[in-house]
Design brief:
Elements (H helix, E strand, L loop, with lengths): L2 H32 L3 H32 L3 H32 L8 H7 L1 H21 L5 H28 L4 H33 L7 H5 L3
Length: 226
């Protein structure tokens, strides 16, 4: 195996490790929020620095590889995709930390369990986790046939988010003293919706790397037929 091939494999391995960490962050964030577990939320917040360190290391390795080997074709697509994916994973971890802070600061601690259930926040977490996990499998197996399935889940998250806004609006209309808490809850479900968007961006990068196709701004047209 050539030296540059070893470096590419090492780069993919770094991204895989970062991915597993971010997926763990998202799963722990779900657990912290649904159980109002401050200790787990603090663990999520403290591990954010590890995610940041991964991104910086991957950025540096990608830049060095391009400078040393001037890659072309699939090798160049791989490096560019790993660079973008690591940045996207870091943003997902940021949203996880934001939700964890929501728990740590005990925002809306008195929010009615019935409202949480109606908002389907647990389902939003499950869909986001599924998208991130399936995207990882798509990269590891180098199988872009999963792309349409993953992207359709983003539509599901969007629908849940818009329904949540309607539910919260109606709720605070009837209980004005919950306005501040309601607004904070909207921000929380917005973070989950944005995680879905970022997972879609990762799918774009995987398809670009493996199939040399640019899906940005054309996802709907491409995958409605899948």
């Amino acid at each position: 195996m050539k030296h540059n091939e070893k470096e590419l494999l090492a780069l993919k391995d770094e991204v895989s490790q970062m991915w597993k960490l971010v997926l763990s962050q998202l799963e722990k964030t779900k657990q912290a929020f649904l159980n109002n577990d401050i200790e787990i939320a603090r663990e999520v917040a403290s591990r954010e620095k590890r995610v940041d360190a991964f991104e910086l290391k991957i950025d540096c390795d990608c830049e060095n590889y391009i400078a040393l080997y001037a890659p072309v074709a699939i090798d160049l697509r791989l490096v560019l995709s790993m660079l973008k994916i690591s940045g996207t994973l870091e943003r997902i971890a940021d949203f996880c930390e934001g939700i964890a802070r929501h728990v740590i600061e005990e925002d809306c601690i008195g929010l009615e369990p019935e409202l949480i259930e109606n908002l389907q926040i647990e389902k939003m977490f499950d869909v986001a986790i599924s998208m991130l996990s399936d995207s990882f499998v798509a990269l590891e197996s180098e199988n872009t046939k999963m792309s349409g399935k993953i992207l359709s889940k983003d539509d599901e998250l969007d629908n849940l988010y818009h329904n949540a806004i309607d539910i919260i609006s109606d709720y605070i209309g009837k209980k004005p003293h919950y306005i501040r808490c309601g607004l904070k809850t909207i921000l929380l479900v917005r973070k989950l919706e944005r995680i879905g968007d970022h997972c879609s961006n990762i799918v774009e990068d995987i398809v670009f790397y493996l199939d040399a196709k640019v899906l940005k701004h054309s996802i709907v047209k491409v995958f409605k037929k899948v």
